[in-house]
Specification:
Elements: H1 7-20, H2 28-35, H3 39-51, E1 55-57, E2 63-65, H4 68-74, H5 76-95, E3 98-105, E4 108-115, E5 131-133, H6 138-147, E6 157-160, E7 167-173, E8 182-189, H7 197-212
Antiparallel strand pairs: 1-2, 3-4, 3-8, 4-5, 6-7, 7-8
Organism: Streptomyces chryseus
Domain IclR-ED: 68-213
Keywords: DNA-binding, Transcription, Transcription regulation
């Protein structure tokens, strides 16, 4: 810690990070051991975080991330969208297909940014806010493959007709961004995805990841 930083704030943020890394919550004793501070300090941190709904404690006394974190999370989407738009515009214009940035939202894939090409006669309509299961469509499957360490060597995922009849998709996951799972992809009206599209999508995903770091 330096003179310019707050030890209490640092500890509070560390509590949130520890809780976000577990599905079953942590006890005061567990947090005390992980933080290297006494239980009294942990109680005070939890009480403060509870007042802001960032932490909740269940009947067994285990602390978990609170719903207040979701309210903060909603404000992240506009920032992510703004950072991703240049790469998505370039991708949509280059491929001539609708490009999108998709993030994980619970058990679903959520399109947070969509860019349609300007020069094509027709393209797939794909709206911001569109949700679908993670195990359907290229966007969600690319995320799951990256999560499971099962991504293909070429780095992208292809699908056909899983979300819309006659439409094919290609997507590549965002890599190297702590705490954010997502993918960049395109969707087009075609029986199959042209060969050059997959590598181009991988490049776009890399551009978006670099913009978010």
């Amino acid at each position: 810690m330096t003179a310019e930083t707050s030890q209490t704030l640092d500890r509070g943020l560390r509590v949130l990070k520890l809780l976000s890394d577990t599905d079953h919550g942590l006890t005061v004793t567990e947090l005390s051991n992980k933080l290297g501070v006494n239980r009294t300090v942990v109680y005070r941190l939890l009480a403060t975080l509870e007042q802001h709904a960032l932490v909740r404690r269940d009947l067994g006394g285990r602390a978990r991330v609170g719903l207040g974190v979701l309210r903060l999370g909603r404000q992240v989407h506009p920032l992510v969208r703004e950072a991703a738009l240049p790469a998505l515009r370039s991708l949509a214009e280059d491929i001539g297909a609708t490009a999108h940035l998709t993030l994980v939202d619970g058990t679903e894939a959520l399109a947070v940014a969509v860019v349609e090409p300007t020069w094509t006669d027709y393209h797939v309509a794909y709206r911001t806010g569109f949700r679908h299961p993670l195990d359907r469509g290229a966007a969600g499957k690319a995320i799951l493959a990256a999560r499971q360490g099962a991504l293909a060597v070429d780095g992208f995922t292809l699908t056909h007709g899983e979300l819309e009849a006659g439409a094919s998709g290609a997507a590549a996951p965002l890599v190297g961004i702590t705490g954010l799972e997502g993918s960049v992809g395109v969707v087009m009206l075609a029986d199959s995805v042209p060969e050059r599209v997959g590598p181009r999508v991988v490049d776009a995903a890399r551009e978006v990841a670099d913009a978010l770091r």
